[in-house]
Design a protein that fits this description.
The chain has 392 residues and is α/β, with parallel strands linked by helices. The protein has 13 helices and 16 strands. It has 2 domains: 209 residues, 3-Layer(aba) Sandwich (Rossmann fold); 175 residues, Glycogen Phosphorylase B (Rossmann fold, 3-Layer(aba) Sandwich). α1 crosses α13 and α7 crosses α11. The longest helix is centred in the last third of the chain and has 27 residues.
């Protein structure tokens, strides 16, 4: 077996590394893990371990560097590997990673409990579970997820949640659960306010435009999209993002629905700039019960009125504060979009945008990172003190 070797830079002066176990791939969609871990990577080595890729060849760990000290590690596993051998093989690759890269003091950071089965033998300074979603409610969730999450709760030093609803669901399962809802890189999305030219694949779509970006999966209410597009053929609905876990053949197709595929994080403001209204047509079901959509503050930072289905962490606080229109039925959704369009360039629209700007001014990924870092450093300090006492 082979793993990649990552040399320490000569000015690397931190005391511990961070090993992240993630069900999401780094290059898929730029979201919470990327925002947070890229900031950690500015001050320490971060090894972002993805789910394995099965191929024809010997087992190895492919490592590639991103910005700063961020290293993406992807296990490549032979196709013929038996299920009962997979965990041991992944464990050996992980051990080789630590040896080859002189990883000693580190924290283990989990986005999925499913990787605990082959990483629970590590001896980290602290264990962090950043619970950004209720994974057990997602389509095709493995049956052992609940048991592994319970085990992760038993060994974790800190549990972060991706929203307040998720915090309420998890706070009685651990003594140190902290809510960290979706944050915002406001300056990045505010670029939409200054964009003057449409991207080429959006330029020929007629106005008015109602747009969405994000993963298009079972959390999207495609029946709602089909109905509102049918009710308003003169409006054009722009859908940006990869299609995952649902059959593309099941997506509604009409002349006024436009699927533009996935776009990079850097491209998003250019597309949003050309929309009249931003929408979040989420299904109201178990898979969306605890979500806290990052796109809510991102749409607002781009200066767009927002219409959403009644997702709890959107209603609280955005709907309650009058920053986002909330609508459930197709007819209500159409009505809300119409009100949002009519409000553009009016005094009430200007006032809503001002209140939105004031609200998101107190939110940032930098702030979230700083608050998380303080909690982690305290946990590491406690761990170090306990170990020192035990040795004494």
């Amino acid at each position: 077996m082979k793993t990649g070797f990552v040399s320490r830079q000569t000015d690397f002066d931190d005391t511990y590394d961070l090993i992240c176990f993630s069900h999401l791939r780094w290059d898929f969609v730029y979201q919470r893990p990327q925002h947070l871990l890229s900031r950690f990577a500015a001050e320490r080595r971060v090894f972002f371990i993805e789910e394995p890729i099965f191929y024809d060849g010997e087992a190895f760990l492919k490592i590639s560097q991103r910005e700063n000290e961020l290293f993406v590690a992807v296990p490549h596993i032979p196709h013929n590997t038996k299920a009962d051998e997979l965990g041991n093989l992944l464990r050996r690759l992980l051990d080789d990673l630590l040896i080859d890269n002189d990883i000693t003091d580190h924290i283990s950071w989990y986005y999925t409990p499913m990787m605990l089965g082959w990483s629970d033998h590590l001896h980290p300074l602290a264990v962090v579970y950043d619970c950004m979603d209720e994974l057990s409610a997602f389509k095709n969730a493995p049956p052992e997820l609940h048991a592994l999450e319970a085990k992760l709760f038993s060994i974790a030093d800190l549990v972060f949640t991706g929203g307040h609803s998720l915090f309420e669901a998890k706070r009685n399962k651990h003594d140190a659960v902290y809510p960290f809802p979706s944050s915002i890189d406001a300056a990045h999305f505010a670029r939409a306010l200054k964009v003057e030219k449409d991207p080429s694949d959006q330029a020929n779509i007629p106005a008015p435009r109602v747009g969405f970006f994000g993963v298009i999966d079972e959390r999207c209410d495609i029946k709602l999209l089909e109905k509102i597009a049918d009710l308003k053929p003169e409006w054009h609905f722009v859908m940006i993002g990869p299609v995952v876990k649902i059959d593309e053949a099941d997506l509604p197709r009409s002349a006024n629905i436009h699927y533009l595929g996935g776009k990079s994080y850097n491209e998003l403001p250019d597309y949003i700039a050309g929309w009249d209204v931003a929408m979040m047509p989420f299904a109201v079901n178990e898979s969306t019960r605890f979500i806290s959509p990052t796109k809510t503050p991102e749409y607002l930072a781009a200066g767009k009125p927002v219409v959403s289905t009644p997702i709890r962490d959107v209603i609280r606080p955005y709907g309650d504060k009058g920053l986002v229109f909330i609508a459930k039925t197709p007819e209500d959704f159409i009505s809300a979009i119409g009100r949002a369009m009519n409000e553009i360039d009016t005094e009430s629209g200007t006032l809503r945008r001002k209140r939105a700007d004031e609200y998101i001014e107190g939110m940032s990924w930098d702030k979230t990172f700083t608050e998380m870092s303080k909690l982690i450093n305290l946990a590491v300090a406690r761990s170090t003190q306990t170990e020192t006492v035990a040795r004494g």
